[in-house]
Amino acid sequence: MKNKNISTFIACEAAYDEADIVLFGIPFDGTTSFRPGTRFAMQAIRPDSYGLETYSPYLQRDLEDTRVFDGGEVELPFGNTEKAMQEILDYTRQVVADGKKFMMVGGEHLVSLPTIQAAYEKYPNLHVIHLDAHTDLRQEFLGEELSHATVIRRCHDFLGDGRIFQFGIRSGTKEEFDWAKEHTHLEPFTATTLQETIEKLRDVPVYITIDLDVLDPSIFPGTGTPEPGGWTYRELMEAIQSFQSLNHIVAADVVELSPQYDVSGGSTAVACKTIREMLLTLAK
Amino acid sequence: MKNKNISTFIACEAAYDEADIVLFGIPFDGTTSFRPGTRFAMQAIRPDSYGLETYSPYLQRDLEDTRVFDGGEVELPFGNTEKAMQEILDYTRQVVADGKKFMMVGGEHLVSLPTIQAAYEKYPNLHVIHLDAHTDLRQEFLGEELSHATVIRRCHDFLGDGRIFQFGIRSGTKEEFDWAKEHTHLEPFTATTLQETIEKLRDVPVYITIDLDVLDPSIFPGTGTPEPGGWTYRELMEAIQSFQSLNHIVAADVVELSPQYDVSGGSTAVACKTIREMLLTLAK
Amino acid sequence: MKNKNISTFIACEAAYDEADIVLFGIPFDGTTSFRPGTRFAMQAIRPDSYGLETYSPYLQRDLEDTRVFDGGEVELPFGNTEKAMQEILDYTRQVVADGKKFMMVGGEHLVSLPTIQAAYEKYPNLHVIHLDAHTDLRQEFLGEELSHATVIRRCHDFLGDGRIFQFGIRSGTKEEFDWAKEHTHLEPFTATTLQETIEKLRDVPVYITIDLDVLDPSIFPGTGTPEPGGWTYRELMEAIQSFQSLNHIVAADVVELSPQYDVSGGSTAVACKTIREMLLTLAK
Amino acid sequence: MKNKNISTFIACEAAYDEADIVLFGIPFDGTTSFRPGTRFAMQAIRPDSYGLETYSPYLQRDLEDTRVFDGGEVELPFGNTEKAMQEILDYTRQVVADGKKFMMVGGEHLVSLPTIQAAYEKYPNLHVIHLDAHTDLRQEFLGEELSHATVIRRCHDFLGDGRIFQFGIRSGTKEEFDWAKEHTHLEPFTATTLQETIEKLRDVPVYITIDLDVLDPSIFPGTGTPEPGGWTYRELMEAIQSFQSLNHIVAADVVELSPQYDVSGGSTAVACKTIREMLLTLAK
Amino acid sequence: MKNKNISTFIACEAAYDEADIVLFGIPFDGTTSFRPGTRFAMQAIRPDSYGLETYSPYLQRDLEDTRVFDGGEVELPFGNTEKAMQEILDYTRQVVADGKKFMMVGGEHLVSLPTIQAAYEKYPNLHVIHLDAHTDLRQEFLGEELSHATVIRRCHDFLGDGRIFQFGIRSGTKEEFDWAKEHTHLEPFTATTLQETIEKLRDVPVYITIDLDVLDPSIFPGTGTPEPGGWTYRELMEAIQSFQSLNHIVAADVVELSPQYDVSGGSTAVACKTIREMLLTLAK
Amino acid sequence: MKNKNISTFIACEAAYDEADIVLFGIPFDGTTSFRPGTRFAMQAIRPDSYGLETYSPYLQRDLEDTRVFDGGEVELPFGNTEKAMQEILDYTRQVVADGKKFMMVGGEHLVSLPTIQAAYEKYPNLHVIHLDAHTDLRQEFLGEELSHATVIRRCHDFLGDGRIFQFGIRSGTKEEFDWAKEHTHLEPFTATTLQETIEKLRDVPVYITIDLDVLDPSIFPGTGTPEPGGWTYRELMEAIQSFQSLNHIVAADVVELSPQYDVSGGSTAVACKTIREMLLTLAK
């Protein structure tokens, strides 16, 4: 009775100091051009995670056997994108400096920029696996260089060629698809080359960024920019199972849940289950 | 003009005495721990069933050619689970005693306990085919032995080993999956062993219980505990078509529709179509 | 960064030992006959309370100047009403024994029974002010004596005549209205006799139970059984302001928010503001 | 167990022959220009009527003491307005011929045309009290003479001047307001002249048509064309109480509920309560 | 600043005279028997089309390289089906007379009757490819010959045998399936014979009518009559890609989006993407 | 047929050059801290304005008799508040420079800052009437000086003392209420001093800014931060009628509609009607 009311993702109850993995949310949707709402993702995910079991029959491992600290959500200013990105970068640098792996939950996809950067600063040989419906490779969008539509291009600014592997992409400008041919590995629509990518990245540091709109909108309607023709949940689970062969995953994120666009709660359940599987993957 | 306003599932207009099958609803969701609402299922199903045709192009049979009595919904107390289970048991016993097959529509999955029991009392050699996302094999849940999460375990209490065949299961505790190895036939995720199960059960009395959350939440978002990674509707239809080889189906149920979580009405349509196909299966 | 993710009602950040008032939620809707959902009230209220200011321009006092502990929600079994009532009673007795005032947030109205009982055990001269659309005076409902529709009658069982003062009532059976004439003070529809009631109760221990459906459904649509013709929010605020003359309020509750029936969040805002004003009233 | 599943408005369980009043629904919204949906009104009203009590503390009478037959809904073709109007007229003529009073539930307001006509054929001295937000006095609308926007003008075609009394009107063209000055009694916005109208009509046959959008959209959001600035529910109840002085009410209707625009169910509750009060008024 | 506020489907900005293709909407749902709402389709599609890119990575062509005029929506009377059909026919005849191809967006499926007729008048050898869940081959429905459930039968009235090719059909009466055996090419459930159909129709004038409910309700919940067991979006895209081999597509339509039944916007996104792909197909 | 698809607020069809008033929308909600969505206001308002009549029975004037140009919505960058404010300022300056009055529709309240500034630059003696639930007088909010919560304070930066008149205010920090006592005229809750304010401002240039959350959330649930206890719609109409005595209104705005929080469309109707009345007020 005397404890305060603590709210975490299911089974993520370790103290910070004893944790191997830090889970945190970034409630930012400031550059979302179409329909905002990803700021509410983590707030919906926590209570709904209790509709899951802690045990994964896919990976045959249990979240109860991991040590994850739930750091809540990073507080950010509204209306000032540069300052927000700086605060996310500062937070993530500290987590990395403390020797933790991390699992970030967005927010819009732009918030992966500072978290990938923090991981890159520690692991200069960082490679990125990117699951998404959209290329996110524009040089600028509506006059801004910091945008959900430019985030992977901004990561390329420091990572350079040959480091980014994109799967599931089914929307972008002609220029983006052309640009990708020279600078990233981009497989449109599907993930048939994922297995060979994983072979290649087996022993290098890897960051996995999952824009959940890689899934078909039927599976994941709770997102701002639905793009029909995406993956089934089983296809995503196959990708996650193939990640088990990677020996050096340093961090991951799951972004672009906008829970209010799916009143059934199914999209939030998709996010919860993906986070559970990715936490178990990071904890391996 | 002079008739009262009668409301039935489409084409289920037989009188009780002339009917071969009794269709009835159980508006109970009293042990639902996460999100209640299955009490409203039958109320949504009846009017929406008129969006269907009576003819099934899958089975090439017509509901107009069957004799089904729609018994409405069993009235139950609120807040007293034991009394509610007793009243369902009494009702179903009477239906069985009158020589009818029956089709029950839930309600949460716990309501299958008294209906399976009533069928078992008449057919002691009863076998159960169970389609579900969840194991439902807990010994107790939140301190209660009567719960949607324990229902199949409670059925095992009287049926014993070798009588329960579970398909599509993708969520449960490690303990449940371990327990199942010794006491039930449990196929995780898929239904590849369904065909051989049906061979085995061809001539014994069979009860089929369909928790509609065996379907992926994209197909069936209108449910309390969505669990991603489930079946497509075509996979469920294949299972139903394979049921045509069973020679002694004595009863069936369809449970866990919570219509308010799917404002599109698609989940209610899924329930309606499944009920139509199962009524035609029972009537064969 | 190192703190766990704590979630409270706005400004209710005192530790238990230093607190004057304990705020807690009861996520119970087990006897709700029509439309369930009050179990989700406290979960919606906490984050939305940050849409409020801590300062009340009505009472010209600030929640920051009070010491309230937010005890989260009492965990309860599902489907077993008697056991749930007992656990609420145990919890509340402890709060009262520790010398705290309390503010309970429902849940359906039945949960006021154990909290009023706990207050009564400490203050045998307890009087109850009851704002509601419904009489709640049935002897039993659908065969059960413990029900949202019987709760005030059950309180009368131990409080006796002359202790219960009901306002805003606009729905009930003829029997209930007749019974009230002899056993409670019941003012239908309005609150014109509230002022004289307060005069009378100025120095006795008082418990205030607010069923928010006393408000018109336009003001408070987020409830299971909307009853048109209720109070405006200003009328409720006038009642709360008149409570400032009571010298011995020992506890209060606010019940019957079902947030999912009001997607605008307006009903949750009504509950939050009412809780803020009542906490300031208790803290006086 | 052997009865079919009968569904009625609460307490309207008389057989046709023994009934004094016939309640029936008209699921027609074929000329609705803005947002359709009134076809679903009666289907929502029946189950939700059980959230009411049968006793009215306003009128201090009980629906259990009346004899009302619930005739269900008249089946109509889609897309053919003239044929639909003819079928409603035929149905209502029969009810009137059988010596019954009636209570019709729309549907869009156009459906009052054939029901008022049927009443007029029996009572050539018929007067109409009309509560509405809109004038409904156009000569034609979008090229059609039969429309929700022309219905009262069409009634004037056979009733003539001095028979129609309109209250609450707050929307229309300048031409309609001008026309009303010579042909109807139209009080804009309020009902201050209702009392004197009732004096005047005390002993003549009266039909009362209530377009529920006379209420403010806050009270009644479940309607196709919300018009802010309307009545509170108490103002509507005052009007209904004043109807008690009329000695010869022959029929009434309640139209324009579109339940799907109000997920809270509050608008349906408003319709249910209004129907209960009007049935008690008719039954006097 | 000085231009009026023009609203078009993305990249459909050609003037009428310079356009090759005319895109227009028909906001008609007057014979919809179950749940209306397709009248709102085009209004939802226009703004949401800006969530798409103009470039199709499937067809590797860009809408910016086509010349499409967006003609807005044809204004129609309400409640008079025959007059509405005549006005659509007049409009479409003019478009065809001006030498344009066209892309019509419904509205309910009945609106394809006048547009197919206008195309047929110019191309007497017209063939129709029909993707749908429903046969639409009734002789009459609820007493009316003009209905969403009769539309393809009405087209057969003038096209005759051997001209209509139906795919994806999974709902209809036994009579309709039997009738189809002699008068149309009807493939139930799937599209395995689509390829050979396209071979056959390679050089004749073809009209493609896509009732989006051919898709599974999980992919396309925003429709009035959801019929489970339909196509995935990838299956529809494969059909569209096979259309690229047709040398003489003269017009197409996309019908039966009811956006209000899918609050996620996913169904509207499906309609937008299908329109983009079909415009690129027409423009080839 | 040959015109492009033009979409305006009802009856606002004048060309820019001939217009007296320019109506435009600002789809900005970048500093919204709680629930975003006001960016969608104007997009919802235009089609729903056709549910209104052009004639106001309150003011007895018709919008058809005015000359209003609908300028659509100003395009803005996402995530860069300063740049967005500059672009709004540039746009509004041009409108003012061309000798037009204007009516701006938000967007969050911050967008009133550049439009008030543009009006002030032309009319240095500008006075502001401010209807709102919130003080909006913070010096900064979450570290930012440009915020919906600081907008009136930012206006005071250039307007100075004695120019701002605030009504309906029922939420703010104690500091804000105290600051207002010295720098603005702030009437909490009500508008009893509005009449005398209007006397005082009869002949000076006045800008009227209406944050629609001054209305009670029952009347206007479609807003990000509902604050119970607000005005009825009739109270707002009385304020608007009193504005008719002002001789020099130079501009007005209506802000903070978030249409997605009110699926009934009632809030959008409130915004439409308020815009119509204010356009008629500006046009006087």
UniProtKB/TrEMBL annotation, chains A, B, C, D, E, F:
A GO molecular-function descriptor: agmatinase activity
Keyword Transmembrane: no
Keywords for the protein's UniProt record, in alphabetical order: Hydrolase, Metal-binding
Pfam families: Arginase
Domain of life: Bacteria
NCBIfam families tied to this protein: agmatinase
Record protein name field: Agmatinase
